[in-house]
Every structure is written in C-alpha cells, then in structure tokens.
Amino acid sequence: MSGNKADSRGREMKRSLNGRILRNTLLNIFVLVLVCCGIMWAAMQSLANNILLDSLQPMARQSAKTVEANIHMLADRMMTIAGDPRMNPPSGDEAGALRESREEALTEAAEIYELYTIALYGLDGRLVQGTSGAPDRLEDGFFSLLRETDNLTTDASTRFQDQLAITMGMPVKENGETTLYVLGVYKYDTLHDVISNINLGRRGTAYMVNHEGDVAGHPDQSLVLSGTTMSQLCGGNQSVIDRVTSDETGASEFSVDGKTMLVAFSPIRGTQWALVMQVPKADYNSYVNGALIVAVLAAVA
Length: 301
Known about the structure:
Layout: H1 2-82, H2 95-112, E1 115-121, E2 127-130, H3 140-149, E3 153-154, E4 159-160, E5 163-174, E6 177-187, H4 189-196, E7 205-210, E8 215-217, H5 221-225, H6 230-233, H7 238-245, E9 250-256, E10 259-268, E11 273-280, H8 282-300
Antiparallel strand pairs: 1-2, 1-6, 3-5, 4-5, 5-6, 7-8, 7-11, 9-10, 10-11
Helix pairs in contact: 1-4, 1-8
C-alpha cells in the first residue's frame, strides 16, 4: 500500500518537473522569438528608410526634369514671340502702322498660346502696348533680373493678379540691341498637371518652392494663393529649407508634429524653383509592422 503511494508521489513530482521544464522552455523560446522579431523590425525599418531615401532622390530629379521640359516648351514660345518681325517693323513705318502691327502679333500670340495677357514694355519697365490685364509696369525684382540676364527670365512667383500663372519675360532685339521687353503670362495648368500627377504613397505630396522659401506650386492651389511657405509644410526644419533653396539635390528625414517625414528635392533648371517630394514614413511602415505582427502571431500559434 505504501509502495503505491510512493509511486504515485513520484509520478506527480515527475509530471510537475516536466511541466516546469516545458513552461520554462516555451517561455524562453517565446522571449527569443520576440527578441528576434524586435531585431528584425529594427533592421527592416533601417533598410526600408535607406531604400526609400535612395529611391526618392532620383525620383525627385526625374520629376524636376519633367517640369523643366514643360517650362522649356513655354520658353520656346516666348522666344518665337520675341523674334516675330512684327514687333520691330522697318523704321520707316508710321506710328499707327507700327502699333497695329504689334497689336496683331500680341493678339495672335495670346490666342494661340492661351496667355492670360501679353505686353511690350520699354527699357524703363513701363507698359508700351499690350492686351487686357497687362500691368502698367514690370515688378521691380523681376525687371532687375530681366535686365541683368538680358535673356529669357521666369518670375519666381506664380501669383499674378489674384490667380496662379507662369510669368515669363524676354528681350526684343533689333540689330543685336534690346529695344523692348515682351512679357507673357501663361496659365498655371502646365505646372498643376505635372505636380498633381506625381503619386507618392497614400499621403505623399509633391510641390515647388522658390529661392525665398515660398511655395510656388502645390496640388492644393489655395496654399500657393495664400502665400504658404516651405517652413510651414516641413515643421520649420531650417537645414532642409536651406538645402532646397540653395539648389541642392538630396534627401532627408525630419519630424513634423511628431510624425516622421521623408523628403527628396531637386532644382528645376532654368528657373528659381525646386521640386520637393514629401512622404509620411508611416505610409510605408505599415508593411514592416504587418510583417512583424504576422511573425509574432505565428510564434504564439
């Protein structure tokens, strides 16, 4: 009788010991799985970050080239307008005939190239002749740059009389000497179509910034009209703003309202603008987090 009791106690002790060993082993394995998942998560986060920054940079440069191509198309049109012989008819023509000749050339250009307005300005920047809506005088900063370059010039601002537009100026020459300046104000659609079609995750945005840090192009046009700055869009990160406004090509990471942002930027050659691509890191973190959750659930199962 006593022998049976001893055998029973022995079996119970053995089962208890086996249970403790099994529980400790399972706990150790589960902790090990969690540690491995943590290391995997950190490695995947770092790898994804580097890959995204490396891929966003050439994407920003390529998108900037697309904008450049559209700007060059508008520039070619301005050169064609400035080279129109009707802008500088033979000197023997009467004043009335000269004005009529220029009127015909300006009206034709406005209709063909869908310009808000087009006008000729004297060497003092004052209006000589133009279509409706032309300013009486060229803006000082733009006029100074136009005189300095004595070549095609694109205004840094895309705001024109409470609407968005692309303003370009070009000298009109006669015998190699500048006699007038032609100003053309194109519709903003050319830029808006390009910027709006750049898809960056669920909440990514592409926009343009000028050398003063003002937003010159954005899918939300109200931001441009209201004078929004890059500082407001990137949480005041001055180091990134300085790199963008100094025509640098690069990529960076910063925080806005506690959210990590990935940004890439590239200058738009021939203009005073740079293209910026800004993407919330959370748009891509969901894939990494999803993989981690699957791994943990598999370990639990």
